[in-house]
Write a structure and sequence with these properties.
Blueprint lengths: L3 E7 L3 H15 L3 E3 L8 E6 L4 H20 L4 E5 H7 L1 H6 L5 E3 L7 H7 L7 E3 L21 E5 L1 E2 L10 H5 L3 E2 L2 H13 L4 E5 L16 H9 L6 E5 L8 H9 L6 E3 L7 H6 L6 H14 L4 E8 L6 H14 L3 E6 L17 H24 L5 E9 L6 E5 L5 E5 L8 E9 L4 E5 L5
Parallel strand pairs: 1-2, 1-3, 3-4, 4-5, 5-6, 7-10, 10-11, 12-13, 13-14, 17-19
Antiparallel strand pairs: 8-9, 15-16, 15-18, 16-17, 18-19
Helix pairs in contact: 8-9, 12-13
This protein binds S-adenosyl-L-homocysteine, iron/sulfur cluster and FE3-S4 cluster (F3S).
Iron/sulfur cluster binds next to helix 6.
Length: about 450
C-alpha cells in the first residue's frame, strides 16, 4: 500500500482528543502514518470545537494558515471535522474554499469513504448528517507504545440543553454504547499495558439508557473494577443533577475508582442555575459534595464555572464566590459566558458587559488560585500513589505522574519506573503541581 502521511490538529474537549485517536486508527488501515508537522502531511485533519466563540475563531485562523501550505502543495488534502464542521457544514467551504472535506460529529467512520469522493469534480465534499447509531464509537484506537492511560468513550451526545450550551445541537442526542463492547475494549487495552482508563461522555451519570444490557453507570464502574490489570478508573463529565447515591457508594466499594470527580457547578446562585436550566440548586449541589466527601474523605473535586451569564447580578456573582468558599475546589475551569447560535440563552436579555465579565473572571480566578494552593498544601507529608507517566518536562532526572486525585507530582527517579505505580511522599506544593520523594521499596 502507498504510504501517506496524516497530520491531525485537535481543538476542544477530551472527546475530541479521543475522536482524533480513533480517526488516526481508522486511517492507518488506509495506509496513513502520523506526521509530526503539517508540512510533511498528505492529509491534514482539523478537529474543531465550537463551545465558545473564541474556540471557533481559532479554527478559522488555523484554516487560514493552512491555505498557504495548500498552494505550495496542491496534492495536499484538508479535512475539517468536529463541532464547527457540524455547525457550519457547507458554509465552511465558502469561508475556506481550500478545504476538501467537511465531516460532522457522527461521520467519523465515513471519513475513508468520503475522502475517496474528494477531488472528483473539484468542489469539496460535505457530510454532516446525524445517525441513529454512531458507528465510530466502537473504533479501537491502539494506544501508542509505552502509554499507560487511555480514553474509552461510553456515550455520545447530550439531552440536557443547558441554556448556554451548543453541545446537544452539535453532538446530537444521548447514545450509550453497549456495556459488553466497553468491557471488551477495556480488556484489550489492559492486555496492551494500559493501567488507567478515563470513561468519556458529556453526562456519564445517565449512561445505560437503551443498551442491550441495561446496565447503569455504577454497574458499569463495578464491572470495570473487576477487569484485571486496570488499576485506575476515571470518568468525565458527571452532571450534578444525575449524581446518584449508588455512584457515591462506588467510591467506597470499587478499589480502582480514583478519588477524583469533575462536577461542573456553573454558578452558585439559584436564580442563575434555574435560568441555565441546570436542574439542581446550590443547596442540592452542596449536599452532594458533602455526601461525596463522606464516602471518600480526600476526594479531589474539580469544577467548571461560567461568569457573566445573561442577567447575572453582582449579588449572584457573590453567591458563586461564596459557594467556592464553602466547597474549596481542588481545581476550577472558569469561562466568560459566550453567546452561541441556536441556544436558549441567545434570546435572553440583560447581557453582562464584557468589562464586568473580565473583572468577575479575574476575581474568581484569584480566589481559586488560593483554594488550589490550600488544597495542594494539604497533600504535604502524605504518601500518595503515583502512576508514572513519563520524564518531567522541567528536568530529565525527574519523572512525572499523577496521584489518584489527578494532581501532577514530579520526583527524582529512573526512567525504568515509567508505566509503574510507585509511592511518593509529598514534600512541596505549588499551584499546578506537587513535588515528591520516591518511597522504597518502589512498588
Ligand atoms: N458536558 C459537560 C461540559 C461540556 S462543555 C458538562 O455538562 O459539564 C465544558 C464547559 O464549557 C462547561 O462545563 C461550561 O462551563 C463551559 N461552557 C459551555 N458553554 C459555554 C458558553 N456558551 N460560554 C462559556 N462557557 C461555556
Ligand atoms: Fe452542555 Fe449541559 Fe450537555 Fe454539558 S450537560 S454538554 S453543559 S448541555
Ligand atoms: Fe467543543 Fe464539541 Fe467538545 S463544542 S467541548 S469539541 S463536544
Amino acid at each position: 500500500m502507498e504510504k501517506k502521511r496524516l497530520y491531525i490538529r485537535t481543538f476542544g474537549c477530551q472527546m475530541n482528543v479521543h475522536d482524533s485517536e480513533q480517526l488516526a486508527a481508522l486511517l492507518a488501515y488506509e495506509g496513513y502514518e502520523r506526521a509530526d508537522r503539517p508540512e510533511e502531511a498528505d492529509l491534514i485533519v482539523v478537529n474543531t470545537c465550537s463551545i465558545r466563540e473564541k474556540a471557533a475563531q481559532k479554527v478559522y485562523s488555523e484554516l487560514g494558515r493552512l491555505r498557504s501550505l495548500k498552494s505550495l502543495k496542491p496534492g495536499l488534502r484538508i479535512a475539517v471535522g468536529g463541532c464547527v464542521a457540524q455547525q457550519r457544514g457547507r458554509a465552511l467551504l465558502v469561508a475556506a474554499p481550500h478545504v476538501d472535506l467537511v465531516f460532522g460529529t457522527h461521520q467519523l467512520a465515513s471519513v475513508p469513504r468520503l475522502l475517496n469522493l474528494c477531488g472528483h469534480g473539484g468542489a469539496g465534499v460535505v457530510e454532516t448528517a446525524f445517525c441513529d447509531r454512531v458507528e465510530s464509537l466502537a473504533i479501537f484506537a491502539p494506544p501508542p507504545h509505552g502509554t499507560v492511560s487511555a480514553y474509552v468513550t461510553i456515550m455520545q451526545g447530550c439531552n440536557n440543553f443547558c441554556a448556554y450550551c451548543v453541545v446537544p445541537y452539535l453532538r446530537g442526542r444521548e447514545q450509550s454504547r453497549s456495556g459488553r463492547e466497553i468491557i471488551a475494549e477495556i480488556r484489550s487495552l489492559a492486555d496492551l499495558g494500559i493501567r488507567e482508563v478515563t470513561l468519556l461522555g458529556q453526562n456519564v451519570n445517565s449512561y445505560g439508557v437503551g443498551t442491550p444490557e441495561g446496565m447503569d453507570f455504577p454497574g458499569l464502574i463495578r464491572e470495570i473494577g473487576a477487569v484485571s490489570g486496570i488499576e485506575r478508573i476515571r470518568f468525565t463529565t458527571s452532571h450534578p443533577k444525575d449524581l446518584s447515591a449508588d455512584l457515591m457508594q462506588c467510591f467506597r466499594e470499587v478499589e480502582s475508582l480514583c478519588g477524583h470527580i469533575h462536577l461542573p457547578v456553573q454558578a452558585g446562585s439559584n436564580r442563575v442555575l434555574a435560568r441555565m436550566n441546570r436542574g439542581y440548586t446550590r443547596e442540592g449541589y452542596l449536599d452532594k459534595v458533602q455526601r461525596l466527601r463522606d464516602a471518600c474523605p480526600n476526594i479531589s473535586i474539580t469544577s467548571d464555572i461560567i461568569v457573566g451569564f445573561p442577567g447575572e447580578t453582582e449579588a449572584d456573582f457573590r453567591e458563586t464566590l461564596d459557594l467556592m468558599g464553602k466547597i474549596r475546589f481542588d481545581n476550577l475551569f472558569s469561562f466568560k459566558y459566550s453567546r452561541r447560535e441556536g441556544t436558549a440563552a441567545m434570546k435572553m436579555t440583560e447581557p453582562v458587559a464584557e468589562e464586568v465579565k473580565s473583572e468577575r473572571l479575574k476575581i474568581l480566578q484569584a480566589l481559586q488560585d488560593e483554594h488550589t494552593q490550600e488544597r495542594n498544601r494539604l497533600s504535604i507529608g502524605r504518601v500518595e500513589e503515583i502512576l508514572v507517566e513519563g520524564v518531567s518536562r522541567a528536568s530529565s532526572r525527574h519523572l512525572t505522574g499523577r496521584t489518584r486525585g489527578n494532581k501532577i507530582v514530579n520526583f527524582a527517579g529512573e526512567e525504568r519506573l515509567i508505566g509503574r505505580t510507585v509511592r511518593c511522599r509529598i514534600t512541596e506544593a505549588f499551584l499546578h503541581s506537587l513535588r515528591g520523594e520516591l518511597q522504597l521499596p518502589e512498588a
